[in-house]
Specification:
Layout: H1 2-31, H2 38-47, E1 59-65, E2 71-77, E3 80-88, H3 99-107, E4 110-115, H4 132-149, E5 154-160, H5 162-170, E6 180-184, H6 190-200, H7 208-220, H8 229-233, E7 240-245, H9 254-262, E8 268-273, H10 281-284, H11 286-303
Parallel strand pairs: 3-4, 3-5, 5-6, 6-7, 7-8
Antiparallel strand pairs: 1-2, 2-4
Helix pairs in contact: 1-7, 4-5, 6-7
Length: 306
């Protein structure tokens, strides 16, 4: 019997150690992604034809100095000085990663604001907080844009992947400052995304996720609670449109359904693209994607009597 207890105890200790190591790897993977450079993203844009039709853009480099002293690098392509769309990119990417979405909005008369999220692109390397600090950065950027171009300007937000979760989180600070949100393949919460990572890597959920949350809190000063897009979007009254690829293995498609159901918006849409992977909906059928964006924006205009 004593030997049995020793064996069971040893298995339990090993299980806990393995779970802790897995949690540590998940935390480090999310806070320190494999960063792309802007040059790498630009090359991908060229390779896949995302630059076609964008030659008319005049991209003016800019910076946004935030209240904590951190400097965000980005650029602005002025079109209509009264209408702006701000793009939030994905985990480990740069502002160039959002470039494939820009032509739709430029053709609709929007000025484009693209920026590197905290820790990414041309910015100083700092840990990624999966939408917690990034959402506050986005809210500050919106207010800086309004200060520069006028309080009466129309601003929409577009975010994909982590940028989508960031946009959802930022909505709680921006109900009076922006007109609409478009979210592509966002995760519904940091916990859900860590669960997804554990699932796809055959890692036990318990107690791995408990350890992960503790590590986020102790080492990086934020937690699952601080990056919960579902909780934030419950407070949202702004028109919102969701896109997701059915074959997305990075952020499971159910996340967009969760966010859609949670939103309190009177105007909300959810579109799935059957053959698309992660952030590939627009690549799988650009014309359909464009049409759905245009229909959504037209609905907003009609609702407002424009």
């Amino acid at each position: 019997m004593k030997i049995l207890f020793i064996i069971i105890g040893s298995i339990l200790v090993i299980y806990l150690i393995v779970s802790f190591i897995c949690a540590y790897c998940i935390v480090e993977k999310t806070t320190h992604p494999n960063y792309s450079t802007r040059e790498q993203r630009q090359e991908r844009n060229r390779k896949h034809g995302f630059l076609e039709g964008t030659e008319c853009y005049k991209r003016e480099e800019t910076t946004f100095e935030l209240e904590d002293g951190y400097i965000i690098h980005g650029d602005i392509s002025l079109n209509n000085p009264k209408k702006f769309i701000v793009f939030a990119h994905g985990h480990g990417s740069t502002r160039e990663g959002a470039y494939k979405y820009t032509k739709i909005f430029y053709d609709l008369g929007y000025s484009l604001v693209m920026y590197d999220e905290r820790g990414h692109g041309d910015n100083e390397r700092v840990p990624c907080t999966m939408g917690f600090k990034e959402s506050k950065d986005l809210a500050e950027i919106v207010r800086i844009i309004k200060k520069r171009y006028g309080k009466d300007i129309e601003i929409g937000l577009f975010g994909y992947s982590m940028g989508g979760a960031t946009t959802c989180l930022s909505s709680q600070y921006l109900q009076a400052d922006v007109k609409f949100l478009i979210i592509d393949c966002a995760y519904s919460s940091l916990r859900a995304q860590c669960h997804n990572i554990a699932f796809t890597h055959f890692v036990p959920f318990f107690p791995t996720l408990i350890f992960a949350n503790l590590l986020f809190k102790i080492k990086y000063k934020f937690s699952f609670k601080d990056s919960n897009a579902k909780a934030a979007i419950k407070k949202n009254k702004l028109p919102i449109c969701f896109f997701h690829g059915r074959k997305d293995k990075t952020v499971f498609p159910i996340n967009s359904k969760i966010l859609y159901n949670a939103s309190s918006s009177e105007i909300k849409r959810l579109y799935y693209f059957e053959n698309a992977g992660h952030s590939k909906s627009i690549e799988s059928d650009r014309e359909s994607y464009k049409q759905k964006v245009e229909e959504f924006l037209k609905t907003i205009g009609e609702e407002n009597g424009n």
